[in-house]
Amino acid sequence: MSANVFLLLVVxxxxxxxxxxxxERIVSKMLLxxxxxxxxxxxxxxxxxxxxxKPPIMGTTDTAHANDADPLAxxxxxxxxxxxxxxxxxxxxxAYRAFMLxxxxxxxxDPEDAHVAARREREDPER
Length: 127
Fold this sequence. Notes:
transmembrane; Helix Hairpins; NADH-ubiquinone oxidoreductase, chain 4L; mainly alpha; 127 residues; transmembrane helix; NUOK/Mnh_C1-like; 4 helices; 0% strand
């Protein structure tokens, strides 16, 4: 079985861009990164599910169903789409709530994290 190298390259680029956007401190960029990762997963599942019209498992002795499409990849993509949209709705709700409380979209550093880092620096100055 050979996969389409161009589609795998597109999946790699989508995942790289998605991870880069998720690591940003702005909620809208995090949301775009999650959507890109969801689309990359859907494309990866469809790419690796095999050629069109044939099941992904080769070598079966039953030749009557050799040209049937496997519904598993389609079901997994549909599930991935639903999960991505649910996660996007959750992130949008968090962004709306954070904007109403702070009137800013940027996620600030936690003061407790700064306190722990300062305490660790006092205890072990070689770090």
